[in-house]
Amino acid sequence: MKIVSKLAIILLIACLVMMGVSCGDEEEANELKVGVIGPMQFQMGEHHWMGATLAADEINAAGGIQVGEDSYQIKLVQVDSNELVSVPDAASAAEEAISVDNVDVLIGTIRSEAALAVQEVAMDYETIFMVCGSSETAMSEKVAEDYDRYKYWFRITPVNNTALGNLNFLLVGAVAQKIGAELMMAPKLAVFAEKASWTEAIVAAAQAYLPPQGIEVVGVWQPSDKATDVTAELTAIEAAGANMIMTALSGPVGIPYSRAWEELQIPAASVGINVMAQADDFFVNTGGFGNYEMTLNSLARDVALTEKTLPFIEAFIAETGEMPTYNAGTYDALYVLKEAIERADSVDMDDIVVELENTDYNSVAGRIVFDDNHDVTWGPGYVTALGVQWQDGELKGVWPPADGSWNGVAYEGIVDYQLPPWVVEFWTQ
Amino acid sequence: MAENIIVYGLVWSGVYALLAIGFSLIFGVARIVNLAHTAFYMLAAYLIFHLNTAAGLNVYLSVFLAIIIVTITGTLSYRLIIARIRQHESTTLIVTIALAVIFQEAVLKGFGGTFVSGPKLISGETGIFGVGVLNQHLLTFGVVLLLLLATWAFLMKTRTGVAIRATAQDREVANLMGINVPGMEMITMAISAALAAIAGALVAPLGVLTPGMWMHPLIMILAVVVLGGLGSLKGSLIGAFILGFSEILVVFLAPSGAFLKTSVALTIMLIVIMIKPEGLFGIVFEEERG
């Protein structure tokens, strides 16, 4: 009798376990696993994660993603790419996320070298990978070269290198105009770009495109993206007689650059891309230096690119205390994905890709439409990006100009660009 | 441009010399190639930053505490780990690099990876021959000269210094003469770690704090001491000047190749080593092993 009782108990436990497993399977069947891949020990990765978390919470609270009669909840999986310390780690992290954690989609990455490696892994597994951090054009060129393999890749943010180059020149042009008007002198530009694959096209284009526009290029300085002291480079730029510096910096070099630029009072206005200067804590991280630096950015605190911009910024700041950087574009990525899945009415990757290609979504950063190579489209009426400047310790939107002189694009909250006072003083005395 | 090259060449040479002194000292005395040396520099930089910003301590008090903590950490690392395996050169290399990585990961987990600037001991800039130089750079250069003088005086004029030099020349004879050899080595390790911490206070605020900030300085000081001759303080100083000026020449004469400045400096080191394998002022390696 005792044996029978024991067997009954074992059978009961086994049944309960089976039911549990069965329930688990059922839950998993209604889950969409999204791997958020980024350097999670760094601010960029934290913003990847927070942007995605905000979107996932909102979508799940609103009932999830509807596919026919089924509702799918988004389950986020944090994937630490460690790409700022060791680029190869990103590929192995992506591999583990797909093959062990069984993520359905990957979003994130920042460094081009890491994003390129993750792209290959994701395409091997035919997994949708939406970049929210790298502008490397080589990734979208692969879609054109081998569509069948690379069709699962899309770029949400930032715009690609070509568009970044164009944007950089627009910002340079705006500052050159200011120098001409206020200092009554011709612009003389120094190019200060970290040595990285994403800056190559920008540097080459600056040397070819700017001189015919009346902007003399006095030299090109290319430190390592991890250089910790660039005071020698800056004094060399001063000695070369530059009154403008065009930056193309994504690595930590952006901090010592900005700090030494103001501390040494280099008499050249700084404009271009400095990813470190896009973050809210830049001013703290530089020890209070970097005022008047102008950089490209995707968002600014008081500038409404769409009706979704300011609510998102408020929600992000409420959660983190920080202004979102472009890496928080994971927020838009999840909404773009949700809409594509619902239009496809399927969770089959090939069906979703077709609908991602048909995306026309009014996002936090502007209207997202993918081009033939799955790059987010840049230009008036689409995602435009912003020129921002540090003024009195605050990041202000300064481009496109408030008067709408750039293709009629004008956003609320844009203020005038200011030349650094020490630059004005140096060249007018 | 010549004045820029001279001024910044001197400044950078001072930075490398400051980083290299402690490394050279511990090798010269204990024959330990301590690859964790710049990790102590990184640790000091982070401690100063967090004691100053998070704990709200005065920057000078933060520096003082950081030097004490790092000196204790360095001494304990030697006592508990390095001393036990120091007879095996290859093992020492691997263990000290492992220590550096452990410190890096600990800092990454403890303080996060946000890129930040360390607090400067002195702000502002000064014009020298029309070239703007940060006062922190000038302070670093001045401290290097003082530390070199102090180290020389300590080794030459004090009983402990004489004992340390005796240990460096011949451990066995020093032991027979009644010198506490392990004690001398531990004192040297403490001084070496303290010098790394001082570099953390002076050099780190010139750059940006990241958990991986120890790697590039380590490569450079290895190059400096190999070029100057392992274990020779004079050699390290001259090696620092050669590599410092090489880097600055690249920045000013080939600006678009500024990212290659370290490679150029290391190539110069390779060329010198090909011609003079023991370095400019070093002891021949074969004799060392014997």
Overview of this protein structure:
The complex is a heterodimer of chains A (429) and B (290). Chain A is of the alpha/beta class. Chain A has two domains: 32-158 and 306-368, Response regulator (Rossmann fold); 162-297 and 385-428, 3-Layer(aba) Sandwich (Rossmann fold). Chain A is 44% helix and 19% strand. Chain A has 15 helices and 15 strands. Chain A has helices at residues 2-29, 43-61, 88-99, 112-124, 137-145, 147-150, 161-183, 197-209, 231-239, 254-263, 282-285, 309-320, 330-344, 349-357, 421-428; strands at 31-38, 65-67, 70-80, 105-108, 128-132, 153-157, 188-193, 216-221, 244-249, 269-274, 294-297, 361-362, 367-368, 386-391, 394-399. Chain A has a seven-stranded mixed beta sheet with strand order 8-7-9-10-11-14-15, covered by helices on one side. Chain A has a six-stranded mixed beta sheet with strand order 2-3-1-4-5-6, sandwiched between helices. In chain A, strands 12-13 form a two-stranded antiparallel sheet. In chain A, helix 2 (43-61) runs parallel beside helix 13 and helix 13 crosses helix 14. Residues 17-28 of chain A have low confidence and may be disordered. By secondary structure, chain B is an all-alpha fold. Chain B has one domain: ABC transporter involved in vitamin B12 uptake, BtuC (Orthogonal Bundle), CATH 1.10.3470. In chain B, strands 1-2 form a two-stranded antiparallel ribbon. The chains are: A alpha/beta (429), B mainly alpha (290). The A-B interface holds A 39, 41-43, 84-85, 194-195, 219-224, 226-229, 231-233, 235-236, 238-239, 252-253, 255-256, 259-260, 263-265, 276, 281, 284-287 and B 1, 4, 8, 11-12, 15, 108-109, 112-117, 119-120, 123-125, 131-134, 137, 205-208, 210-213, 216, 247-248, 251-252, 255-259, 262.
